């Protein structure tokens, strides 16, 4: 008889999560998938982060912040999920929560940059954009040496769906993935 694993918890980062977020991100920094950020950045930007946990173990996170000088625009950054949780809908659950929360807060365009060359973002309703289509303030923060692909997703308030279709919004989500 196999054990049933508890549902994954998607929630906003709390004061106890700064070091956990930093530690989780280091594997992805080492693989070139994320930019290095000092621990202080995680601690100062906790309000930007959503986390997903399996029991007490932090297994994924993402952050969203508004773009200064670009009304209705925000940037998705530091998005990572432990490899052993890939293919289970974990990243989709995080993204669904983030898009719903930020759409309700008036964000209409969610930008991201990635070095991934697969279709993950495209499959979740992001579309490729050129540098000329992206907010200049955001482009100035990117490292051109990373050769990142730029994406945007248009958001709508009040959209609710499954994590596969994106769009849930509550304080804490439990996903049976």
TrEMBL record:
What Pfam families does this protein map onto? Acetyltransf_1
Enzyme Commission identifier(s): 2.3.1.-
A single GO molecular-function term is: acyltransferase activity
From which source organism is this entry? Streptomyces solicavernae
Identification of the protein by name:
GNAT family N-acetyltransferase
Give the UniProt keywords, A-Z.
Acyltransferase, Transferase
InterPro entries for this protein = Acyl_CoA_acyltransferase, GNAT_dom, NH2A_AcTrfase
Enzyme class, broadest EC rank: transferase
For the N-acetyltransferase domain, which residue ranges apply?
8-144
